[in-house]
Design goal:
Elements: H1 3-15, E1 23-25, E2 28-31, H2 38-45, H3 62-78, E3 82-88, E4 93-104, E5 109-116, H4 125-141, E6 145-150, H5 155-163, E7 167-177, E8 182-191, E9 203-204
Parallel strand pairs: 5-6
Antiparallel strand pairs: 1-2, 1-9, 2-3, 3-4, 4-5, 6-8, 7-8
Helix pairs in contact: 2-3
Length: 216
């Protein structure tokens, strides 16, 4: 296919999704949000260590978590982003989130972001979730490029991206404002033609979930 045909095919695949994508590996499940996720979502995004390098302030009220999860349904309905809840299958509990944001079929690209609870860090969950989401973006949507930007001092996030086959592409100076600083942004990218990481987890297929409202 030429580029125009790839763009049209990607747009059709995105719009024709029959439900919120459910992705599974041997250890993780990436699923749609549920009402039971509110408390853990608030715990995640109110934690100062998790939010240290984010471009938004930490949550201070659980209602913000409700609104955040409601927004996931709207984003999927509009096909502008897909934000998964990351679940540890062994313990049947939410451990974080993983997001394809600014999905742009017209340019065959998307961004990726992720956050893992402090007590669940160090177990490779972020790398595994990112690999699952990137593989889905390439294989199912037919995207050409996935990109990420991180704070230059965020070494754990840098290691996640490098393990998932991303390449450092440049520094954007003073790009994001936080409560305490205007911060630089280090850009990483991965192309569909880049080699698959040698230690990539095996993905197990799963059905789509209902794409209706996530919370009452």
């Amino acid at each position: 296919m030429d580029v125009a045909q790839r763009v049209e095919a990607c747009r059709k695949r995105l719009q024709s999704l029959d439900g919120f994508p459910l992705l599974e590996s041997e250890r993780l499940q990436l699923r749609a949000p549920r009402e039971q996720d509110v408390a853990t979502t608030f715990a995640l995004f109110s934690d100062p260590t998790v939010m240290r390098y984010w471009s938004r302030s930490a949550m201070t009220d659980e209602q913000e978590a409700v609104e955040y999860l409601d927004g996931i349904a709207r984003g999927f309905h509009e096909r502008s982003f897909i934000n998964w809840i990351v679940v540890d299958r062994a313990e049947h509990r939410m451990v974080g989130t993983c997001t394809l944001y600014e999905i742009m079929p017209q340019h065959l690209r998307t961004g990726i972001g992720y956050a893992i609870l402090p007590e669940a860090q160090g177990r490779g969950f972020a790398s595994e979730a990112v690999h699952m989401a990137v593989s889905w973006a390439f294989e199912v949507l037919g995207l050409h490029r996935v990109e990420a930007d991180i704070h230059p001092d965020n070494l754990p996030s840098r290691r996640v991206l490098e393990r998932c086959g991303f390449h450092e592409e440049g520094l954007l100076r003073e790009r994001f404002c936080t409560a305490s600083e205007i911060q630089h942004s280090l850009v990483f990218g991965r192309l569909v033609s880049d080699p698959t990481p040698a230690r990539a987890p095996r993905r197990v297929g799963g059905p789509a979930e209902d794409s209706g409202p996530m919370l009452a």
